[in-house]
Design brief:
The complex is a heterodimer of chains A (436) and B (203). Chain A is mainly alpha-helical and 436 residues long. Chain A has 16 helices and 7 strands. In chain A, the strands form 3 sheets. A 3-stranded mixed β-sheet of chain A has the order 3-5-4. In chain A, strands 1-2 form a two-stranded antiparallel sheet. Chain A has a two-stranded antiparallel ribbon with strand order 6-7. In chain A, a hairpin with a 5-residue loop joins strand 1 and strand 2. In chain A, helix 4 runs parallel beside helix 5 and helix 14 packs across helix 15. The longest helix of chain A has 21 residues. In chain B, strands 4-3-6-12-9 form a 5-stranded antiparallel β-sheet. Chain B has a 4-stranded antiparallel β-sheet with strand order 2-14-8-10. Classes of the chains: A mainly alpha (436), B alpha+beta (203).
């Protein structure tokens, strides 16, 4: 078998696979660009004559990866995820993931949205291929089973930040340098060894100590964080904070719903073989502490609007009531405040910071949900002229979570009403010429 | 029958017992009707999936069908498309599409709604199959049964106002023992061809 023949055959195969994707109806907008990028990459491989077998091997690797990207085109079926939410994620991603090339001109990533069987993901193409890569791919993956669960989609704040940390310039560099600098200047997050000291201290909960003892018995030595796992913990914490500042308290609500272990025994669970994530107790403690520092632990609605005030207080209590003790607090208030300030500065550049709804708006949205109506702010005056308000997705989600806190059996219906509201809000924004 | 005029429509909408939301422009409220905009989901019959509509088969499925088959038949009858704003959907001559209204609706117990095509669109061949009656107390989106009776395809865009609803006053108690078959729908659903009360007359 001549390697060059195999390469030519593989190029033709991948080209056919790409062509075949055009049979499928897919969207939303931007997918054509994705298709064009794939076609461009194939073309450039075709145009490059490999000089030796090493280059053939590199081209075959690129083709294999390209085939994976191409297969995702067919998965972008509009009926399988909330596309008004997907539009907003696309908008945010384009803002925070735009890179500047060597000529300083901005290069937007190609955002492709799919629905798959597993969890929430935002996958950033960390390495542009050796041949023909022009724009990086970012794949946003919605869980197929949670099509209408827009309240939970706030967790994308965390996933998007992972993509940001993978890219290299602009917002990513601010997060990597400024924010990490703020949280690693001293304390347990200062270094891998400082984190090891914290983990193995006698203040650690019994469950953690038991895990460490088991590890010691099995491996014959004490546990030490390696640099890679230490950095992964930093990423997770920064991503949690990023999500909170992007989507507000709804992020913490989604975080708790999706990540809080059903059994208390697992609140401090750490997988010491592959410790990529801090225990839930640590992550939650930081987020709840951040809520308090920002002031989001105080209801927006005054006591005068009794029912809405009660409902909002119930949600806030639900979000902040867990107390996992001082050991779970990895960041001092001053460090956390500084990290919040720096992430906010990065978001501010693109006007992406969460802005809470006004008291009047939130009260209106909560009342509408109580009346089984989609939570938007739209009314008419005495002459029949519409009064329409632009609301950000995160504000609608917050109203949804507030409603849920008082109506825990209505989670799915609350999600559906909020999903419907996002759709109607998009129509309102189109009519009022407001980009959403 | 008393049909609500513009001032009464505005009054009831502002009072909040009648909900048709969102109203996006003041001309959406006409002299005695409110325009309805098209939502973003289209259900089209999947021609390859069913040979014909038959109440006998529907009765057989209802009585002794397997749950899987009943549900599969129901789901596979239509092709479902979601169309974002500013995207086109072509309705070909002779085709029927079930489309939700963009507006969420809640009718009080004393009002009955009648949905028809707007005359502008009707002149192009677009029909809202027959006048759709919306019962007092109904809540949800309204399913518009769009048919193209013209000779050429019609391009439809979500958000277009294509239908209108007139509201008439109803006298007497409108509550009934069984709820309507569509409870707070968010998108079009297939109806029941044969209900329990039809069983005796279907062979």
């Amino acid at each position: 078998m001549v390697p060059l023949h195999r390469l030519r055959e593989e190029i033709a195969n991948v080209e056919r696979a790409l062509h075949e994707t055009l049979r499928f109806e897919y969207g939303p907008e931007g997918t054509e660009d994705y298709h064009e990028e794939c076609a461009g990459r194939i073309q450039e491989i075709k145009n490059t004559y490999p000089l030796d077998e090493e280059e053939i091997a590199a081209q075959l690797d690129d083709l294999e990866l390209l085939a994976t990207w191409i297969s995702l085109i067919e998965r972008a079926h509009l009926g399988e995820f909330s596309w008004p939410f997907a539009y907003e994620l696309r908008r945010i991603s384009e803002l925070v993931l735009t890179e500047r090339n060597l000529n300083k001109s901005p290069t937007k990533p190609l955002i492709h949205i799919v629905a798959e069987g597993d969890g929430y993901k935002a996958v950033f193409e960390s390495q542009v291929p050796s041949f023909g890569g022009r724009r990086r791919f970012v794949i946003i993956v919605f869980p197929r089973a949670l099509k209408h669960h827009v309240l939970l989609h706030a967790i994308f704040g965390h996933e998007l930040c992972h993509a940001v940390l993978f890219s290299s310039m602009g917002t990513p560099s601010i997060l990597k340098t400024n924010v990490l600098e703020a949280i690693t200047s001293s304390g347990p997050l200062q270094s891998a060894s400082a984190l090891t000291t914290w983990l193995t201290s006698s203040r650690a909960p019994k469950l953690v100590q038991n895990t460490l003892n088991r590890y010691k018995k099995k491996s014959g030595g004490g546990y030490h964080f390696d640099q890679d796992h230490y950095e992964k913990w930093l990423d997770e914490l920064v991503c949690d904070l990023f999500g909170l500042l992007l989507f507000g308290p709804s992020f913490l609500a989604a975080h708790k719903w999706l990540l809080r272990p059903p059994s208390d025994a697992r609140l401090y669970q750490i997988n010491l073989t592959y410790p990529t994530h801090p225990p839930y107790a640590v992550r939650h403690t930081m987020l709840a502490q951040a809520m308090r520092l920002i002031g989001w632990d105080q209801p927006i609605i005054s006591k005068r609007a009794r029912n809405s005030h009660k409902a909002e207080t119930r949600l806030i209590t639900e979000l902040t009531k867990d107390n996992f003790g001082p050991w779970a607090q990895l960041l001092s208030p001053s460090k956390l405040r500084e990290a919040i300030k720096r992430i906010n500065a990065a978001l501010e550049e693109h006007k992406l910071n969460y802005s809470p709804p006004s008291q009047k708006t939130l009260d209106c949205l909560i009342k509408r949900l109580a009346e089984k109506l989609p939570p938007i702010e739209a009314s008419i005056d005495t002459k029949g002229r519409p009064r329409l308000t632009h609301l950000h997705i995160a504000q609608i989600l917050y109203a949804g979570w507030v409603h849920w806190a008082s109506n825990p059996n209505e989670f799915f219906m609350t999600n559906r009403f909020c999903d419907q509201a996002l759709l109607q809000q998009r129509a309102i924004d189109q009519f009022t010429n407001r980009p959403s | 029958m008393t049909i609500l005029g513009r001032s009464k429509l505005i009054q009831r909408l502002r009072k909040g017992d009648l909900v048709i939301s969102p109203i996006l422009s003041s001309d959406q409220i006409g002299a005695a009707s409110i325009d309805l905009r098209m939502g973003n989901v289209f259900l089209m019959v999947r021609a390859r999936g069913s040979s014909h509509v038959d109440p006998v088969a529907a009765k057989a499925a209802l009585i002794k069908g397997k749950q899987h088959d009943i549900e599969a038949d129901k789901r596979q009858k239509h092709e479902r498309y979601e169309v974002p704003f500013k995207s086109k959907f072509l309705l070909h001559p002779g085709s029927l599409a079930l489309v939700p209204s963009l507006e969420w609706m809640r009718l009080p117990r004393d009002l009955l709604g009648t949905v028809t095509a707007r005359s502008t669109w009707a002149r192009e061949g677009l029909s809202i199959a027959t006048a759709t009656l919306i019962e007092p107390g109904y809540e949800g989106i309204v399913t518009l049964e769009l048919a193209n009776l013209g000779q050429i395809p019609i391009a439809l865009y979500p958000g277009l106002s294509i239908a209108q609803i007139a509201l008439a006053k109803v006298t007497g108690d409108t509550r009934r023992p069984n709820e309507g078959q569509f409870r707070r729908p968010f998108e079009p659903e297939q109806g029941k061809i044969v209900g329990a009360s039809d069983l005796p007359i279907v062979p």
